[in-house]
Queue: 4 jobs
Job 1
Amino acid sequence: MHQLFVRLRGLSAWHVGLTAILLGLAPLLLAAPICVVDDAQRELCLAAPAQRIATLSPGATELVFAAGGGDRVVAVVAFSDYPPEARALPSVGGHSRLDLERLLTLQPDLAIVWGSGNPAEQMAALEDFDIPMFYLEPNSIEGISQAIERLARLTDSEAVGQQAAQQFRQGMAELAEQYREAEPVTVFYQVWNRPLMTVNEAHLIGQVIRLCGGENVFADLPRQIPRIDLEAVLMANPHAILAGGMGEENRDWLTEWRAYPGLQAVQQDNLFFIPPSLVQRPTPRLLAGSRLLCESLETARARR
């Protein structure tokens, strides 16, 4: 009888131990996967929040930091210069040509992909290594806020992400209201100089021009970033010319337009420099770029 009691007591202890282990694992077993739909309309599901993120465009780097996941970023690409902390992170090449070997050694558990900017063949190679990939390419003002919110979900930083997204929404809404009835100003926005390139109305910059009360003289062109010729700009004769340049302080493109004194924009000195990183990256800094763009067009109105 004593031996039977000992066996039963041992069995009971074993059950108690097993129960304790299962109770400890219960939160993990019951936790639902984190599922988010990306801009390629693909559903990505993670078993747990991402811990080691590779951002494959400068814009993606900014968005992850804005969403509160900056401390999880382990790899960036060239020109990932904002926020300043990003400059110290390991670079894995340029967005158009990645150093895949270096990227893989950093062991990312999530890659934020620029669909139209990262090479398709290299993205296919990453998929072969079973690295979860989230395609991100906001193409609207609201899309930027939504991108922040989705990234915050993937990095378990939703409180930070929701606050950043809402601040951006509110700031852009206030600008839209401020310039809702502004007098129209015809605008040429220069994306590149050789070849000469601009944006149409569907492009994010085109949307900002419209929000500020501008009329993009190339709004109706079919491509979002069309090539044009000099004669087309001279014929359109815009009231204002906006340009970035090949750097944050490079105003050479605007200087070149002074060779055409017949242009209204030149006659009225409506040649405005917009730092490219403020308007050419789909990030929360677009709010600062939009304010600058709107102020430039307001100056052009006052000079008529």
Job 2
Amino acid sequence: MRVAILAIDGMRGFDLSIAIEVFGSGAVDGAPANEVSVVGPADPVTLTGGMAAPTRPLATASDADLVVVPGFADLDASLAGFDDADGVAAVAALVDAHSRGAQLVSLCTGAFLLARTGLLDGARATTHWRHAARLQSLHPEIRVDATAIYLHDPARRLWTSAGVTAGVDTCLAIVRHVHGAAAAAAVARSMVIPVARSGGQAQFVPPRARPTDLPDAGFDRLRELVGSDLSAPWPLSRLATAAHVSPRTLQRHFAALGLRPSGWLVGQRVVAAQELLESSRLSVEQVAGRVGFGSADLLRKHFVRLVSVSPTAYRAAFQRSDPVDVPEPSGRHGAG
């Protein structure tokens, strides 16, 4: 496979290195070698940290089977440069390579440059969770999914990945797609990493950094009341009373977010469960009771749906080194 790694000023050296390591490590343990080149509108280009990378002419990408678009460290500065000569030339090279049959893959915020081609319009795409809302705002035609580690649209020959090390997952998936599972496993073993990781990037989003919340500051009291008594039943009538609105008005506010009150409440309970799994020694069953789920099974069901991994796997990955014993709250309600 002929692989061209696009490089322009401001790209992450780490992303570029991922592509070189996965695709350019040569034949290892039976995995086929690829022909890899770094291409760009300038020679050399300046990457993050002041690193300089020599490049071959952009025209080299026209013969590639795969073109890799690394991400950018300073997204604001990079977006401003997309209309410069180098940015315009890079976008044109991507369109040309794709028209000749190449697959295109963006790593992390490289999705913003790939989006400028228009090729992602109508497709599902992902990027680093921190920048997903911005990608959606700038390119409403794209169906941005902030939960995925990577996404592949075979019909469009497009790949997009989440942030930073998710680029490794994505490049290994491409090796598996092109060369087969055995080849991907061989490359992963050579890099001393798993060939695939469980779950999506939702597990890496800080619990209180969810993009969806009530739109009005007047609902702060509702959030506080619910958060202070999650183990209690919270039917619609009680939620509306806490928010000082009618049930119909409350439903209308939630509908504006594409949510139901019950769905929002489940989200609040899962967030609280994440925080307890990170900070406490409570069992999963105890966590379920503290946050208002009737059982560990119900917690697992909603947790996997929203966070992409099980509570046990989440705790193994994110529990603090100094978890604490959490006392039983006084006046505890039964789960509703």
Job 3
Amino acid sequence: MSNVVIPYHPKPVQRRIHVELSRRRFCVLVAHRRMGKTVLSVNHLLRYALLSQRGDSRYGYVAPYRNQAESIAWAYLKKYSDVVPGRQVNEQKLSIAFPNGAQIRIFGADNPDALRGLYFDGVVMDEVAQMRREVWQEIIRPELADRKGWAVFIGTPKGINLFHDLYVRAQGDVSGEWAALMYRVHDTGALPDEEIAKLRAEMSDNAFRQEFLCDFSASSDNVLITIDDAVGASRRTYMDSDYKTMPLVLGVDVARFGDDRSVVFPRRGLVADAPVTLSGKDNVEVAQKIISLHHQWRPHSIFVDAGQGQGVIDIISRALSCVYEIPFGGQALDPVKYYNRRSEMWFLMREWIRAGGKIPDMPELVSELSAPLYSFNVAGKIYLEKKENIKERLGRSPDLADALALTFAIPVLPEVEQRQDYALRPQNIFADYELQPSGGYAVGFQPSLL
């Protein structure tokens, strides 16, 4: 095949990218829209397939959806391989076999079963941000192992997901196997300046930053807590005197499934301290830990998710009087504004962060906080997306963030003897309101930030 000339004429930036892709086993390419990523990736696969001397090489192109891959990548693959003598095209399997024994096949990540049981010498995963994590972690990565195959991950940022995590991993790699590449719209020359100016004027700031400046910190317009706000909250510092007089509250999110964790999150006013996580523990063990933490920390109130925490609540309520059962799916304290209690708690947590709240410096927590989207239902109430949807994008349950949100279930003011001192601290006014002796709450609380 040495005389075959593929009718592909890469732009200068594409040439540079091809060189970079050939140097590392795993490459994460973050590039703006309309840069030509699909054409580039198809020809990258084609080059390796045609030059292979193994006789049974297998290469794959994986897109989020098979129909999408067929309408775009499949057409490009047939077009650029048309000059290869003796190639065999299988329309049903979306595969092309070459005389040297190499084969390229198109897949959709929406049908992971079609990927199982195979092996690959190289794979391109296009628009990784829209794929489930298990497609890479549980299927494709093991299928590269015995052949020491390579992988290229291509896409445009779309919040916190597998693509973001792969890029961060590549940036921090010290093994020499990974490369992190980023090409923004001003780096490539793929679009004329006047068109870029029009796009900037017509798109929202978040959308332009995400789609053309490749900014992972740019959030969708319906993200409840932006990445910038979450990261900012993790970098704040306070002196002990700024918050130690505030009552301590604990939010407890009890594990729902085998891979979830039970989390106990402590917060005093504007400062949330490091959480305690419990994995593989039953209700009795979780309850025992909470009681032990109560004896150590002496919290004012403990708010426990009622959905999966009823067993824990039954146990600790017998030993402690400050336990409150909080139904995530129950009615909000402000039912006119919020669809349910969970939506309300998350929204209050967002306002707390914006008012100066500090969270522990935990990348995992930042990811969980900045993942959920919100919308408005037909009644105009704020509605936070389902936990199952968030878990699918993150690849894990947002246990840490849900536990922190629970600390906002019922606002709590300082004890009576501390209120004079509290009144002199305007930075803490958002801190919360008093639990009445009866266990009720002061319904007049209306933060000016809402």
Job 4
Amino acid sequence: MSTDNIKLAVLKPENMTIYEAMDLQALFSATLAAHKQIEVNLSDVVEIDCAGLQLMVSLKNDAIKQKKSMAFTAHSREVIELLDLFNMTQFFGDPVILGK
């Protein structure tokens, strides 16, 4: 499948925990392979743990390696709290704007 015609994909996960990690990793990898730009809207995330944070880091690093654009947007309060806890906000470089 050519990625020339498929530009932006928007993903909107609800939970990003160890229980969803395998499914989210597969979704993130497939989406990154098929699109030039990815936006992950985090406004509906009500649960996130270290596995979710690792997925975010992995997706960001994979996008950089593949020279593709990706952004995390509309961060939920839970996501912001986790990013603050691990001092990771600057790593992602996305404007942190509270979603809902």
